[in-house]
Design a protein that fits this description.
Strand order of the largest sheet: 1-2-4-3
Shape: globular
Helix content: 40-55%
Order of helices and strands: HHEEHEEHEEHEEHEEHH
Number of strands: 10
Strand content: 15-25%
Largest sheet: 4 strands, antiparallel
Radius of gyration: 17 Å
Oligomer: single chain
């Protein structure tokens, strides 16, 4: 198992601190791995794709329990990599538009970019949001090699908002544009450890610190 997979496995078992943390995590996952489709005038349909089964379970349970939304689940397998992928389809239905609005995905003018700051007012919710971002698109290289950490998002606005959340915890990230995406990255082992600890991956953070000590 790669170190990225280990971190995602650990993060998928972190319990929410308050009743709004799950909404923050779900909003981040939709923002990173979701696609919004128009299904008639003013009606939306949502698809979310993930290769982490625990994340698929979290998305489905949160959509069911928090928003009472119906979902369909399809497991797909990549022909090239032979790895499973789960597609969660949320058809147009009463309550979906309201849920997307509460999660900061859509507004009166249509799709919104960046992070809805109402979702991350509390520190625990900011942590939960960043946890969702990493579960959606995070990558960390094996700490025995060079330290490298990435979060890939589709817009400059989203990347800047993530950097701002990290700066609030003295985690100084940079952004680079790659083709049609933007990547938030860290190269410092101490910064990566701080991020992991902040989002709840304490065992992974400890592993990073042990490698830092060995290297020094």
């Amino acid at each position: 198992m790669s170190f990225t997979a280990e971190v995602k496995e650990e993060l998928s078992h972190v319990e929410p601190v308050c009743s709004h943390c799950d909404a923050a995590t779900l909003a981040a996952l939709i923002r990173i791995e979701g696609s919004i489709f128009l299904s008639g005038p003013g009606r939306f349909r949502l698809e979310i794709s993930t290769d982490v089964p625990q994340v698929a379970r979290f998305i489905i349970s949160t959509l069911h329990n928090r928003y009472a939304l119906k979902t369909d689940l399809t497991m797909r397998r990549s022909v090239l990599h032979k790895t499973p992928n789960w597609l969660i389809d949320v058809p147009a239905q009463p309550g979906l538009n309201e849920a997307l609005s509460e999660l900061g995905i859509v507004g009166e003018g249509g799709l919104k970019r960046g992070i809805d700051h109402e979702l991350v007012k509390k520190e625990c919710c900011a942590s939960a949001y960043l946890r969702g971002v990493f579960l959606g698109s995070g990558f960390i290289s094996n700490p025995r090699g060079d330290f490298h950490f990435e979060l890939t998002v589709e817009s400059q606005t989203m990347a800047n908002d993530i950097v701002e959340l990290m700066e609030a915890k003295d985690i100084h990230a940079k952004v680079v544009e790659r083709r049609n995406s933007h990547t938030v990255y860290l190269k410092s082992g101490s910064a990566i450890s701080a991020f992991l600890a902040y989002v709840g991956a304490h065992q992974s953070a400890l592993k990073m610190e042990n490698e830092r000590v060995l290297k020094s």
